[in-house]
Structures are given as C-alpha cells and as structure tokens.
Amino acid sequence: MDQAYKDLLTKQQYRLYKDHAAVKLCHWMKESMLHERHCYKQDFYGISSHRCLQMTPAINECSHMCTFCWRIQEHDFQIDDWAEPKEMLDALIEHQRKLIWGFKGDPRCDPVMFEEARNPNQVAISLAGEPITYPYLSEFLSECHRRGMTTFMVTNGTYPERLEALDVLPMQLYVTVAAPNEKIYKEVCRPKISDGWERLTRTLDLLPSLDTRTVIRHTLVKGINMGWTEDYARLDRKADPDLVEPKGYVFVGGSRNRLSMGCMPSFAEIKEFSAGLGSLIGMEIIKERADSRVVLLGHPGEETDVRKIYGLERFRFRLSLMAATAEKQ
C-alpha cells in the first residue's frame, strides 16, 4: 500500500492492519452509543449495534468497481504477507477500542454500553473490498465463532469456487445483486473480470446448497437499475434466499465522483420496488427502516421476528458453548 493511499484511508478514519485488513466505526454504532438510535440490523436480526465490529480482511482488492460504492477505487494491489486470523482479529478489536475511547468521557454515553462496546460480539465483514479474497477466511470465521461472535459477510458473488471451498460459513451470508441482467451489470458494477456475470449466476446457483442464512441484497440506484423487477425475480428464484434486502443507494464516499444525489431513490420508491418484487417471488415486506432506506422481504405466514425464525438466539447459545469448551481446553 503506497503511503498516499494509506494516509487518505487514515484521514477517513479507517484503521489498518498489515495493509489489507481494516476497521472503521459505523455511523450507527456512534448513534447507538450517543443517541440510542441503532442500526436496522438490530431491528431486523437482533445484533447489538454498539457491539458490532465493522471490518474487512481485504480492503486491497475487489473484482468490481461499482458506480454506487463508497470505496476508494483504482488503488488495488496484491498481498504477499496476509495476517493470520487470530492476530488480525485481535488487532482490529484493539483499533476499535482506541477509536471509541473518546466516548468514555461523553455524558451521553452510558458507561455500561461503553464497556460492552469494548468487547464486540458481532463481526460485519462488509466494510470495503471483497472479503472472500482473504485466503484464511474459514479460519477467521472459526476464530470469531470460537469467541462467541456472530458473523455477517457481504460478497459480490464473483468468487463461487472460493465460496464453495469454505469449511466454515458466516452466520449470515449476503450476496449483492445490483443488476437485473448482464448489460446493466457491466454498466453499474463495472467488473474488472470478463466473466463476472457468469460467476455471479454460478454463485446464485450455489446458494440453496449452503447451510447458513442467505440474503440477497439489491442495491437500488434510481434511474439506473430499478426498472426490471421480473429480471430480478428470476435471479432471486434461482438463489432461493431466506431473505431479500432491497436497499437504496446513498450519496456518500467515492460514489459522489460518479453519481448524483438524484440517484438516491425515495423510501416510497424502494417500498414500491420491494412490493412488486415480493409479489413475483412469493415474499412480502416483513420489516422496514426508512432512515436506513432498506426493506426486508420474507416468506408470508412466518413470524415477523426473524431473530426467532432464523435462529440468532440458538446460534448465540451454540457459540457460547463452543467458547466455554475452548476455555476449558
């Protein structure tokens, strides 16, 4: 990583380890600690916003240069010296502890919440870059689970062979499907590889066989990728996910160099898209958060508490047993 790129990331409040792993405080973590306003994932899935570690093991690489992405692009590079999972996790937690240190003296921050935040129990592997390029991903997920930490991971779907080869899967796997067809895919996702669309569809074919909770994320950019609900429905039926998350594009980060504020759909437009898509794939809106510009589609007839439907509480209990066993050993 060249020094200018490193300095820019540091200025943007990223904290780096071994030039490829990074952590950054999420907006909703700050809101949770200071204003008791939490992330939509707390509402939808039961994670605690103030105990979430937003990180990436591979800020250095992605096969896409998506127009809507906040990531700094055109600075990708190869890594020869990848960090070991345990040391990487320890280092990123320590970085996060330093980043939140100023909250301790803020009267708006509850002291108990501050101490809890020092010990994250949820890892969001989604900050930037493509995490599945990290060669020790299975071992990293295993280390998180051994410590009783739940794991959510977002992938762009262009590495089906790596996904299939994982020995350990995240507790929740997101696949971003930001285009309804190959033409729009090339315009919106701007793949750096020639067979990106074919690779994505292979991942969607693979998804039903994976023993974990699966979510399709549709990032919606107004006037660019929203007008093809039937095409999206065909892709979603192929993937057969547990849940679908249509989420509106937000005008932040590097995307401001490529898009405009007019590309942000209204929440009403997001809901209209979601309702139309749901009717085509046999799902309905079961959760929504206007301030996060996101809707959750699930199968009708189920309880609306997806934490119970999809076993987050049972998962945490299983992780606690694993952690207790590891301590005895």
Characterization of this structure:
With 329 residues, the chain is of the alpha/beta class. It has helices spanning 3-11, 27-35, 40-45, 85-99, 111-117, 137-146, 160-165, 182-188, 196-206, 229-239, 267-281, 306-309, 312-328; strands at residues 15-17, 21-23, 52-56, 122-125, 150-155, 172-176, 213-220, 243-248, 284-289, 294-298. It has one domain (3-71, 80-320): TIM Barrel, CATH 3.20.20.70. The protein is built from 13 helices and ten strands. It has a ten-stranded mixed sheet, sandwiched between helices. The longest helix has 17 residues, at 312-328. The N and C termini lie far apart (39 Å).
SSE diagram, text form:
Elements: H1 3-11, E1 15-17, E2 21-23, H2 27-35, H3 40-45, E3 52-56, H4 85-99, H5 111-117, E4 122-125, H6 137-146, E5 150-155, H7 160-165, E6 172-176, H8 182-188, H9 196-206, E7 213-220, H10 229-239, E8 243-248, H11 267-281, E9 284-289, E10 294-298, H12 306-309, H13 312-328
Helix pairs in contact: 9-10, 10-11
Q: Got a strand count?
A: 10
Tally of separate domains: 1
Mean pLDDT: 88
CATH topology: TIM Barrel
Cα-atom radius of gyration: 19 Å
Separation, N- and C-terminal Cα atoms: 39 Å
Oligomer: single chain
CATH class: Alpha Beta
Strand order of the largest sheet: 1-2-3-4-5-6-7-8-10-9
Unreliable stretches (pLDDT < 50, length at least 5) are 303-310
- What would you say the CATH architecture is? Alpha-Beta Barrel
- Strand content is 15-25%
